[in-house]
Write a structure and sequence with these properties.
Elements: E1 3-5, E2 12-14, E3 16-19, H1 27-33, H2 38-50, E4 55-57, H3 66-74, E5 83-88, H4 103-117, E6 122-127, H5 136-148, E7 152-158, H6 162-175, E8 180-186, H7 198-205, E9 208-212, H8 236-239, H9 248-265, H10 269-278, E10 283-288, H11 293-300, H12 309-319, H13 328-332, H14 334-339
Parallel strand pairs: 3-4, 3-10, 4-5, 5-6, 6-7, 7-8, 8-9, 9-10
Antiparallel strand pairs: 1-2
Length: 348
C-alpha cells in the first residue's frame, strides 16, 4: 500500500483508508449501510492491516457512537498499528450542547470519543460540518488546546465550503494554532464539484483531501445500469435521498465508459472508479467501506495499479461538467488557463 503525506503535515496515511460507518449500523441511514458487529469488524480490520490499510475513519454521529465503540473493540491490543480518525459537530441529541463546535462541545466530544475508542489519543480529529454559531477563534483555539494536551495529534474538517476553510486557516495562522491538515470531502466520477474551489484551495494551503463516498453514493458499484431498475439489494433504495442527486443520463454515460475501461483492465467497475480518484490532485486518501469480507477485498483491489493516460482522459471527458461562475473561466478560457495553470496530479 502506498503512503502519502496528509496535506503538508508530517502524518503519512495510506492511499486507501477504511470507513467504519457500517459498524453497528442502526437507523434509516447507517442501518442501510451495514450492521457489522465487533467480531466481524475485527476480521475486517485484520484484512485491512494485512493489505497495509492502517487508517480507520468513523464519527460520533455514526449510529449514536456505536461505530466508535465497535471500532475500539476491533483494534483492541493493536492501537500502535492503526491511525484513528473520527469526527464531531453534527447533532448527538436535542440538548443545547449536543451539537456544534463550541469549546464545551468539542472537549466533551473528544473525551467521549477517547472513551468509546478505548484510546488515549486520536490521530485525526475532524469537524463534521461548519458551525456558524460559534466564533472561528473559539473553535480553532479549542482544537489547539486538545493538540497541546496530547489528546489529538492532527485536526481536520469535513464538508466545509471554501470560505469557511480559508477563514479557519487564516485564524489559525494568525494565532499560531494547529492548522487543519485534512478536508474530508465528497468526490467521485459523478460528483466532481470538489475540483471547482476546494481542490485549488487545498493545493494552495497544503490541505489534503480524504475522500468519502468514492462510488457516488453507491451508484458506481457496477450494479446500477442503463435501462434496468436499481437492484433490490442496493442501499440506494433507503439512502438516495440522504446524498447528492445525480442525473440518470449523466450517470449512465459515465458507467458506459467505466464498463469499457473495466473490460480493458480486467478490473471491476468499482475498482476503476476508485483508482481514478487516486490519481487526482490533493487526494491523500480514499475511504473505502464494506459490509463484508468480499466487498472489502474487491475495494482493496483498487490500489496497486494505474489507469493509462488514455483511460483517464476518457473518464475525465465522460464525467466532466461545466462549472458555474466564477469557476468556469479557470478551465474554459485560454487567458485564465495561462495565469491559473492546471494543478498537477498527485503522484502514485
Amino acid at each position: 500500500m502506498e503512503y502519502r503525506r496528509l496535506g503538508e503535515s508530517g502524518l503519512k496515511v495510506p492511499a486507501l483508508s477504511f470507513g467504519a460507518g457500517t459498524f453497528a449500523g442502526s437507523g434509516p441511514l447507517f442501518g442501510a449501510w451495514g450492521n457489522t458487529d465487533a467480531t466481524e469488524a475485527r476480521r475486517l480490520v485484520d484484512i485491512c492491516l494485512e493489505a497495509g490499510v492502517t487508517m480507520f475513519d468513523t464519527a460520533d454521529v455514526y449510529s449514536d457512537g456505536a461505530s466508535e465503540e465497535v471500532l475500539g473493540e476491533a483494534i483492541r491490543g493493536r492501537r500502535d498499528q492503526v491511525i484513528l480518525s473520527t469526527k464531531t459537530t453534527l447533532p448527538m441529541g436535542d440538548g443545547p450542547q449536543d451539537a456544534g463546535s463550541s469549546r464545551s462541545r468539542l472537549i466533551t466530544a473528544c473525551e467521549n470519543a477517547l472513551r468509546r475508542l478505548g484510546t488515549e489519543y486520536i490521530d485525526l480529529f475532524q469537524l463534521h460540518a461548519f458551525d456558524a454559531g460559534t466564533p472561528v477563534e473559539e473553535v480553532v483555539a479549542t482544537l489547539d488546546d486538545l493538540v497541546r494536551a496530547g489528546k489529538v495529534r492532527y485536526v481536520g474538517v469535513s464538508n466545509f465550503s471554501g470560505w469557511q476553510l480559508m477563514k479557519s486557516l487564516a485564524v489559525a495562522d494568525r494565532h499560531g494554532y494547529a492548522r487543519y491538515a485534512a478536508h474530508q470531502v465528497y468526490y467521485s466520477l459523478v460528483g466532481r464539484d470538489y475540483e471547482w474551489e476546494l481542490m485549488p484551495l487545498g493545493a494552495d494551503q497544503g490541505v489534503g483531501a480524504i475522500v468519502w463516498s468514492p462510488l457516488g453514493w453507491g451508484r458506481l458499484t457496477g450494479k446500477v445500469r442503463r435501462g434496468q431498475p436499481i437492484p433490490s439489494g442496493s442501499r440506494l433504495h433507503e439512502t438516495a435521498d440522504f446524498g447528492p442527486p445525480v442525473d440518470d443520463e449523466y450517470l449512465f454515460d459515465v458507467v458506459d465508459v467505466l464498463d469499457d475501461v473495466a473490460t480493458e483492465t480486467g478490473k471491476a467497475v468499482a475498482q476503476v472508479a476508485i483508482n481514478w480518484l487516486l490519481r487526482r490532485p490533493t487526494v491523500s486518501s480514499v475511504i473505502i467501506g464494506a459490509r463484508n469480507e468480499q466487498q472489502l477485498r474487491q475495494n482493496l483491489g483498487a490500489a496497486g495499479w494505474s489507469l493509462t493516460d488514455d483511460q483517464v482522459a476518457r473518464l475525465d471527458a465522460a464525467s466532466a461538467r461545466t462549472a458555474p461562475y466564477p469557476y468556469f473561466p479557470y478551465y474554459r478560457q485560454e487567458g485564465f488557463a495561462r495565469v491559473n495553470p492546471p494543478i498537477a496530479p498527485t503522484a502514485v
